[in-house]
Amino acid sequence: MSAPRHGGTNEQRGLTQKVAQRLREAVPGLWETLIGAPLWGVMMAVSALAALYLRNGAETSHLSGILVLFFAGGLVSWPFALLLGRFGAIGRGRETRFAAFFLCLTVCTIVATGILFALDYRIFYARWHAPFGTGTWVYQFTFTSASAIYQFIVMGIRLYLPLGFAALALTSLWLAYRMPEQQR
Q: Which one in 15, 23, 103, 184 has a CA-CA gap of 20 to 30 Å to 66?
């Protein structure tokens, strides 16, 4: 038998420092965030508008609310997607950088927009819910939010197609080519 290694804490500290350093390197610039977030939001709103127009001529009484929701989802998701994409792309080849940005933009945009939809859904149903903090309220909040997210997944994700997918691919490609090959 070999002697037990007590270097686990040092290895853990070294890994934590490496992750912290990589995270610092991944932080996007202020202008990249301030300009990119509204542009991404506009692209997502235009995507929703195009999908609604192709589906039924954009004839819905909730058009402005849908466009604001998709704009806000894109706006909120951009900084998180950019940070996570850059974190995964540092020091990688172009294909991996593209995949990192593509995945992070997809997931962050859908999650942010879904959460905003669930919050709006919750606000609508709040008048019929039990008082805040009670067990019944927790139950109602949980299942109202879960049903809203399910509804967004079933009906809302379609509004990202076909234009949102193209914007996603082009933006991911642009971000992948803009980031240097070796940043470390």
A: 103
